[in-house]
């Protein structure tokens, strides 16, 4: 497969902005689905016009649906995208955090008429409840923090809505999340929304894309990779969570140990530049919120680490920050982007 042909399998995506506004939100937060006790069951005695009642276990909570939700909200563009690709765009009554990232070009028009509940943060409690949702899909549990003025999961329950959190964004899963967690989200939402065929097709496409990467890089030794986030002169290393598993799936050997004490409670840790120098990564991956942030980060890395192999070889790989959120189809885009840069001769 040529590199251009491989790229053609990826969706067209726009750059993101506002990554720093959700950085704190991410804190709370063979293909093997080891997804925090999540599963789908059905009750044959309770059914609606479209089939059996459905119960899924999500973040340790059982969510039961006698009928398919008809008023759905996506609390991040990544969740709104997933809902649209499952074919339930007509049921979406609200989208949130729309300025954090742009929807892919091929579905942006479908979302144009969906009411916007917030721009760069989760919607206030009153605004979310005002659209009377019966299902709210979110990347992490942070979006339901009552202390921040957001509707809590309990408040949603009291108003007839169920909150579905991306498997990789569950608090007890956040540091051990895997790329394949999104497959569980697709399966769960497909069952909840009674669109199993669309879910199966999306899962198959996702698995094929991951398998193509695995096949392309299988015979190559993994290069040493550092994954960082730069905001101003603040440098953070990414060592755990979905972000780290993206590196592993793309064929990189993370120079930071996910089992290290600095990543025991959070997938990222602020570090001194010397930590990067001492590990001498062959590639550096960094999340960006837009073209300006990307350029600033590249300048910082070049000036701070001129003798690190990644800089000497110009192997500085930018990834849209929204592709690193839990429960995002963009996770697969990130894997493909990084793999193509790490193994240019394999695609």
Automatic annotation (TrEMBL):
Ranges for the Fe/B12 periplasmic-binding domain?
A: 71-346
Q: Fetch the Gene3D superfamilies from UniProt.
A: Nitrogenase molybdenum iron protein domain
The answer to whether UniProt assigns keyword Ubl conjugation to this entry is no
Q: Where is the signal peptide?
A: 1-34
Q: What are the alphabetically sorted keywords of the record?
A: Signal
- Which SUPFAM superfamilies does the UniProt record give? Helical backbone' metal receptor (SSF53807)
Give the InterPro entries listed for this entry: ABC_Transporter_SBP, ABC_transptr_periplasmic_BD
According to its UniProt record, what is one Pfam family this protein matches? Peripla_BP_2
Q: Which family does it belong to?
A: Belongs to the bacterial solute-binding protein 8 family.
Protein name, as recorded: Zinc ABC transporter substrate-binding protein
């Amino acid at each position: 497969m040529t590199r251009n042909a491989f790229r053609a399998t990826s969706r067209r995506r726009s750059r993101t902005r506002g990554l720093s506004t959700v950085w704190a939100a991410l804190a709370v937060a063979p293909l093997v689905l080891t997804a925090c006790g999540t599963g789908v069951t059905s009750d044959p005695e309770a059914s609606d016009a479209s089939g059996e009642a459905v119960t899924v276990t999500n973040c340790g909570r059982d969510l039961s649906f006698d009928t398919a939700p008809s008023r759905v909200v996506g609390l991040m563009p990544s969740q709104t995208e997933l809902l649209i690709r499952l074919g339930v765009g007509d049921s979406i009554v609200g989208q949130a955090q729309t300025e954090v990232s742009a929807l892919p070009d091929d579905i942006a028009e479908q979302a144009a008429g969906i009411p916007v509940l917030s721009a760069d943060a989760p919607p206030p409690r009153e605004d979310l409840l005002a659209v009377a949702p019966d299902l709210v899909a979110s990347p992490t549990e942070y979006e339901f923090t009552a202390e921040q003025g957001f509707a809590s999961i309990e408040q949603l329950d009291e108003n007839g809505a169920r909150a579905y959190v991306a498997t990789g964004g569950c608090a007890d899963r956040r540091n051990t999340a895997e790329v394949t967690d999104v497959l569980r989200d697709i399966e769960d939402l497909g069952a909840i929304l009674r669109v199993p065929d669309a879910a199966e097709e999306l899962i198959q496409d996702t698995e094929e894309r991951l398998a193509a990467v695995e096949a392309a890089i299988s015979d190559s030794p993994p290069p040493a990779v550092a994954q960082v986030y730069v905001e101003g002169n603040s440098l953070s290393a990414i060592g755990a969570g979905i972000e780290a598993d993206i590196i592993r799936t793309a064929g990189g050997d993370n120079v930071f140990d996910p089992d290290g004490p600095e990543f025991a409670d959070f997938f990222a840790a602020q570090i001194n530049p010397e930590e990067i120098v001492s590990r001498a990564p062959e590639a550096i991956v960094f999340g960006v919120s837009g073209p300006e942030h990307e350029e600033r980060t590249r300048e910082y890395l070049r000036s701070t680490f001129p003798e690190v192999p990644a800089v000497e070889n110009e192997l500085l790989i930018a990834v849209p920050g929204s592709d690193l959120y839990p429960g995002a189809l963009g996770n697969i885009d990130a894997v493909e982007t990084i793999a193509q840069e790490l193994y240019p001769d394999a695609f």
